[in-house]
Every structure is written in structure tokens, then in C-alpha cells.
Design brief:
The protein is α+β, with helices and mostly antiparallel strands. It contains 16 helices and nine strands. Strands 1, 2, 3, 4, 5, 6, 7, 8 and 9 form a nine-stranded antiparallel beta sheet that branches.
């Protein structure tokens, strides 16, 4: 048949990397035969691979309308919506694909990924475990479950029991992933993050360096290695032996009560413009947590950037902290968040097992500096919510808020314009 010949030609062109010509042939076939669901699906997959996501989404919509039980069309639609950050819609697509094939392992894995983005960590873990049960020796199943367990461990309120239980299981599973794919940089990165969280800084350093060795362009590996080296420097400054695990640094006193400390620093347009510029060039490299919906976080070491505007902000913030706390300040990480309508963060704190191991819980604090609070005329103007005790704070431009890193908190935002804020975690000593 002529169509079969043309279809094979398009597939061959695609395999040869001649994507534009392959698209032309696919479109020519569909011009005369628009109801060929399989051809529509092939075109959608190609468009998705080229990051032409809006076009791919339309094609998959057409494909599914032609063939509602087309499993892989639902799956690839889910992948497309995931890349478009429509995580709730991608979740629905993966569930539909699974309803048509209950053993679709890739759909379970990607469903887990979408649920992770939505902050549904319990459901994400359940689906990752199901994928692992379907294929115990599949690399992606092990890696995904390890990531979810890592998230659940580091975000747990119980640093001594449930947290360590999840982290140690994550360690075991990611180690299996490494054995399955020894030269995969992501496995070594994830293993390093887990060791870092558990306080094994020497082991974490080796794993992160191995990840960078395998992929010298890994932004995440370099970022987390820099954080690790900061932790090591902090411990050295405080005279803490890395090899000791007990009775360390126990004589520090808590500096703040549970009530947040509020200060103000007038934001300027240059700073806001700079962060949006960084966003356009750097934010696409990674998405850190624990945000959901239309929230994005930089995972960008903004205060490590040699920029006069950022250096001035860093200097002012450190001075504000020093005046209140009356102690030295050691910034461990710095980042910025952008929230749009329907964005926010899941309830979380900023303590980890490293802090527990080296007895630093009472010296660690979290700071949020609001640059633009966004639309305050909407139904939910956006607020910062703290637990233990329950307390809501309505942000304003230029507001700086400091809370103990141990205090669980979240952000909610439903405005139409972006909400922009800088965050840092620091130790006082």
C-alpha cells in the first residue's frame, strides 16, 4: 500500500535524524488520511521529542479522539503534559494508560514522577513500589523508588525513626540501581544525596565526584557537591570532627522563640530583573522541591554568584541576622522561588539528618525575603503558614522572615501574577 510505503519513509527519516523531513511526510500522509491514529501518534511523539509541546499536545488529543483506547497515546500525552508542567493532567493520563494495561511499568514510574511533583509522596511511593514489583531489576524502577523514599525521609518530621528508616531503604535501593547501571551518573548523584542527608559526608563526596566524573556538565551534581563542601567547611569552622557521631556541639542555645522574626529591606527592580534573567537561563536545568503546581524553585546558588547586586543583598541580609542573633552566620544554601497561580509548597521543614547527626538543629534557621508578593486582589492572596503553633503570615514587598529550620511551614498562592522570593538556610554559631 502507498500509505505503508510513505509511513516507512517517515520512520526511516526520523531514525536518520532528518526530523523536519519526517514531519513533512507524516503531515502529508495525514492531509489525505486524517483518521490514522497510529500516524497521528508517531507525529506526536516526534514533536514531543523536539520540544514542540503545544503542537504535540494537540496531536495526541486528536489521536485519542480517534482511538480512545490507544494506550501509548495516553502515555505520551502524559509525558507531554508533564513537560508542560501540567502535572495534574499528566497524572490523569498515566492513570488512564494503566487502566488499559495494568502491567504498564513505564506508566507507573511516570505516574510516580507526576505525583512527586504534586506533593503526593505517599501515592508516588505506592506506584513506584508497584513498578518495582513488576520488574525488580529494572533500573528506572529502582531509581524512582529510591528518589521517593529520599524525599519522604528528608521531609519527615521524625528525624530519628521514620526519616532514617526511609533514607536507609532509599540507600539500599539506589545502591542496587548503581549495580544495575554502574556508569549512570544519576545513580551516583542520588546515592551521594542520600549519604549527605545521613551525615556520611566523606562517602557523599566520593559519590558526587563520581557523578561529575561521568557527567561533567551535571548542574545538580556540581550544585550538591558545592553544598557538601560548605557543610564540611562549616563543621571545620565549628571545630567538629567529621568522624564523630555523638555528643557534638551540644552547648548551643536556641536563638529564636517559635514566633518568626520580621524585618524589612526595600527590594529594587534591578534585583527582580536579575532573578528573572537567571530564571530564563538557569531554572530550566532543575526543579528543586518541595514545590507543587505552578511553583518553580531555582536550586541556584545565587549568593555564590559574583554579582554586585546579589553581593549587596547578601551583605544586608547577613547584617540583619547578625544584629538580631548576635553571632556568626554561615549560609549553607541560597535560592529563589517563583510562584504563579495554583503554585505553592507542600508542608516541610529544613532540618535533615546531617543536622541531627552533628547536633546542629538549634543553630539552623530559614529565611524568606519577599521581593514581589504578586496579586493580592485574588480569592486567596497568598500566605505563609507555619505549624507548631498554627500561624499565618501575610507577606508584603521587602519583608524578611526568619524562623527556626525545624518549624514546619508551607506557602499558598492563587494570584494571577508571579510571586517572587529569595530563600536561604543558615547556621548561627
Amino acid at each position: 500500500m502507498e500509505i505503508d510505503k510513505e509511513l516507512q519513509e517517515a520512520i526511516n527519516l526520523q531514525q536518520q535524524g532528518n526530523f523536519n523531513e519526517a514531519i513533512r511526510v507524516y503531515e502529508e500522509i495525514l492531509k489525505n488520511n486524517p483518521n490514522l491514529a497510529e500516524v497521528q501518534n508517531n507525529l506526536g511523539i516526534l514533536l514531543k521529542s523536539l520540544n514542540r509541546l503545544d503542537e504535540a499536545e494537540k496531536i495526541f488529543t486528536k489521536t485519542i479522539s480517534l482511538k480512545p483506547d490507544f494506550i501509548h497515546a495516553h502515555y505520551h500525552m502524559g509525558n507531554t503534559k508533564y513537560k508542560l508542567r501540567k502535572f495534574d493532567e499528566s497524572e490523569h493520563c498515566y492513570k488512564k494508560a494503566i487502566s488499559l494495561n495494568s502491567n504498564f511499568i513505564e506508566a507507573y514510574i511516570n505516574l510516580s514522577r507526576a505525583q512527586r511533583e504534586l506533593g503526593k509522596l505517599k501515592e508516588a511511593e505506592e506506584n513506584a513500589r508497584f513498578a518495582l514489583n513488576l520488574s525488580p531489576d529494572f533500573y528506572e524502577s529502582n531509581n524512582q523508588l529510591g528518589l521517593i523514599l529520599f524525599d519522604r525521609g528528608r521531609l519527615s518530621d521524625d528525624l530519628q525513626n521514620k526519616s532514617l528508616e526511609k533514607l536507609n531503604e532509599a540507600k539500599k535501593i539506589i545502591l542496587k540501581a548503581i549495580n544495575l547501571k554502574p556508569d549512570h551518573p544519576l545513580s551516583h548523584l542520588n546515592y551521594g544525596l542520600i549519604l549527605q542527608e545521613l551525615g556520611d559526608l566523606s562517602g557523599a563526596k566520593i559519590s558526587l565526584q563520581k557523578s561529575l566524573q561521568l557527567d561533567s556538565n551535571s548542574f545538580l551534581a556540581q550544585y550538591n557537591l558545592d553544598i557538601l563542601l560548605k557543610q564540611i567547611n562549616l563543621l571545620n569552622e565549628m571545630g567538629i570532627n567529621l568522624n564523630l557521631k555523638e555528643n557534638l556541639n551540644s552547648n548551643f542555645k536556641k536563638k529564636f522563640s517559635k514566633n518568626p522574626f520580621i524585618a524589612y529591606r526595600t527590594p529594587n527592580k534591578e534585583l527582580i530583573n536579575l532573578l528573572y534573567k537567571i530564571n530564563s537561563t538557569e531554572l530550566n536545568k532543575t526543579k528543586g522541591g518541595p514545590l507543587f503546581g505552578n511553583g518553580k524553585t531555582s536550586d541556584y546558588k545565587i549568593f555564590d554568584n559574583d554579582n554586585s547586586i546579589l553581593n549587596e543583598v547578601k551583605k544586608d541580609i547577613i547584617q540583619i541576622i547578625k544584629e538580631e542573633i548576635k553571632s556568626n552566620v554561615f549560609i549553607i544554601d541560597s535560592f529563589f522561588n517563583i510562584l504563579a497561580a495554583g503554585g505553592g509548597s507542600v508542608p516541610h521543614h529544613h532540618l535533615n539528618s546531617f543536622d541531627k547527626t552533628f547536633n546542629l538543629e538549634k543553630q539552623k534557621y530559614s529565611l524568606t525575603y519577599y521581593l514581589d508578593v504578586g496579586d493580592q486582589n485574588c480569592k486567596e492572596p497568598g500566605y505563609f503558614e507555619m505549624n507548631d503553633p498554627k500561624e499565618k503570615v501575610l507577606p508584603s514587598n521587602g519583608m524578611i522572615m526568619i524562623i527556626p529550620a525545624s518549624r514546619k511551614h508551607s506557602a499558598v498562592y492563587e494570584g494571577k501574577s508571579d510571586r517572587l522570593m529569595i530563600g536561604i538556610n543558615f547556621y548561627c554559631y
